[in-house]
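job 3f2a | input accepted
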Amino acid sequence: MHNIEKSSVNDDPILEVKNISLSFGGVTALSDISFDIKRGEIRAIIGPNGAGKSSMLNIINGFYHPQQGEIWFDGRRRVSEKPYLIARQGIARTFQNIALFKGMSTLDNIMTGRITHMHANLFWQAIWKGKAEREEIRHRERVEQIIDFLKIQSIRKTPVGRLPYGMQKRVELGRALAAESKLLLLDEPMAGMNLEEKEDMCRFILDVNAEFGTTIALIEHDMGVVMDLSDRVLVLDYGHKLADGTPDEVRNNQTVIDAYLGVGHDCNRFKIL
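job 3f2a | predicted structure (273 res):
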């Protein structure tokens, strides 16, 4: 894992989060959060359960709309938009809980990631001639490349519901890659995996970043994974930004140490250190 070269990081941010606040009724999920994600970097977002990590990803890809703040993506201030429009702009997502079509094959699940690139209308799709046929052949070629990249050729026709958990996670990554996004959001990609599966997923994430130049933001509880993969780390706690910096800076940040190890906190809550 350490021998894989990362993509070069550009100081120009691809995403800027400015003073974002999100509440559900009287419960504050995020309070005045600001950070950026630079082009080409792997950006980790960490924190205990309930810190607001998934809520932040849901804001970035349009599932949630904040009460305050701004999102800038690819140099443009984003207005309130639906998730499918944000996906078309170049943001793809995997989920903490696997969201695949269990009765469909690996290949067909990954094909659904190409939807934002399909342009043939319903008439041509129904008769499957001309433009629709050429388009599907082109998309299937791209999906086959992803299947080869993820080394899942042997399960390409297998219904994903029959696959072990770690392999389903790999298929979900494949579906996100099929969108050919500029920014890939990974919500706990290693959750529930054994050590071997985690090592495989780490290699694929590094390869996606290095070979495709994809910018990646990930939520992860395994600190070994975070320290090995990420260029910078954002730490959230109870919806507030606790720290932001390189892995070494965060690891040695006294505020983080006090918050996660201090006697004033329930130590069972802070599983990530």
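job 3f2a | The longest strand covers residues 13-24.
job 3f2a | closed
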